[in-house]
Write a structure and sequence with these properties.
Distance between the termini: 35 Å
Keywords: Membrane, Transmembrane, Transmembrane helix
Structural class: alpha+beta
Low-confidence stretches: none
Order of helices and strands: HEEHHH
Number of strands: 2
Largest sheet: 2 strands, antiparallel
Length: about 160
Amino acid sequence: MKINYLFPNKFKKMGWFILIPSAILGLVALIFEYEPSFLDFNLPAIFIEDLNLFSDKRLFGIVNNNILNEILGILTIISSLFVAFSKEKLEDEYISKIRLESLVWAVYVNYGVLLFAFLFIFDFTFLWVMLFNMFTVLLFFIIRFNWQISKLKKSAHHEE
């Protein structure tokens, strides 16, 4: 039984088209702490804790939040999934093998970085590492998979 879990090939171009600007804008927004006021909204939230030292923690409530980071994070995740899990133009068993090996490698590297962070990075810097760690498994996979595919294409070109 063959299970098709990949997006069509056309999703890869769309993914790159969204991923590059959203990742760049996300990094710029984080570095320069840019939050345009027109994106401030009162939103439903869970696990709310007011900054007031003596306030109660609540399970549900309404918070005022700037949604730029959420928009860019969602765009980055969805576009990364499109890039990572779209079929190649010629998808065969060897490409599937490279895809699986790249995914396993990416998970190992990602959790290696996370273990390193647990041992040597503390306080607020650790929070930043965890923030970026949400995206790195897909990033490591995309880099390794495309590198392996380019090596395959070069070796096939040299054989001709």
